Amino acid sequence: MLPFLKNTFSGFSRIRSSAFGLINQNGSQVLSNELLMPSSYDIFQVRGRKRALKANLTRQQKLERRLKREAKEAARKQYNFMEKIKIRRMKSLLSPSEQHPGRYIAENEVSLPDFPTTNVFFNNQAKTQFYSITDALKMHREMQQPSIFNNPKGIIKLRIELNMTTKKKTKMISNSDNIIPVPYPIETKEKRAILAFVADPELQELAIENGAEIALGPDVIKKIIKGQFRIDDYDFCVAHSDMGTSILPLRGILKSRFPTRNNGAFGENLPEMIDKFKKGVRMNVVGDPVYLHWGLCTPVVGKLNMADEEIILNIKTIIQALCNLRDPALGPFINRAVMMVGKNQFFVPLDVTEYIPVVEEEEKK
């Protein structure tokens, strides 16, 4: 209800102003404050539109409102306060998955033709073409010949796009750094510092002879816990079986570097374990900080001067080890794999479906 005042003034039609105030026609001066007082006024009301706030809702409308409230509440509880701030900051940055050559999204290519109509075509004019490993190696060798990029012994690496989701919607696969032994080791300039935990002095000498930077016994465990001995300079750790109980307090300090039988860093054959971490392929799985359900892995699989069969076996071994990090029943872990050589931006999408484990219908249930 809105009240309005309507002021009506009377008796001032023959008033004029002067330098000394207001004077009527008879010459008598009128005080200005008397003019501000109305002689009469009227009050009336204007009734507004009545809103139907208490309108009856159908059962379907109530259900839709409840589902919207529940979805809004679930979205609010998905991340805590600090995670929301981190996501807000990271959205202003470019996602690593979107950097060259970008992430493959099959839904964006539904309307494109399956195959190009000419030998030379733009990538956005046809669906992504996936090639066999042999054809990809042939294309890279042509690009790296002396008359073009002149890198016939270039290092071959894969850029593998991953789906990091798990059974829980709010939990993603954690980052990991593993060493995978391959059938045909690759000689690179990468230096890997290995720390060996061995109780027997003779085995300590054996570990150092086979490539370990240093070998420590049970007497150094307390120094590591107190921070008197730094282990940050070592990339990987191996342990002999005689140190099984002694290294347990270091689990929280070493974290992903803690020696276990699963990562192949705990056992009795020290030379074999050290050789694995010296010559094996580093498989580093990193989650995307912007899109948390995406991830990347860029392992080195060989050199261009190696035989095709050797490179194929290395790729098969790495992909199978990578797929073990996620339950196959959740769907494909690998979104796409592309082959690249050195720092060159030329890439070839690979068809690696035959190396990805297939889940039967019984296992999905």
From TrEMBL:
GO terms for cellular component: ribonucleoprotein complex; ribosome. Keywords: Coiled coil, Ribonucleoprotein, Ribosomal protein. InterPro entries: Ribosomal_uL1-like, Ribosomal_uL1/biogenesis, Ribosomal_uL1_3-a/b-sand. It comes from the Eukaryota. Residues 50-80 form a coiled coil. Pfam families: Ribosomal_L1. Belongs to the universal ribosomal protein uL1 family. This is Ribosomal protein. It comes from Strongyloides stercoralis.
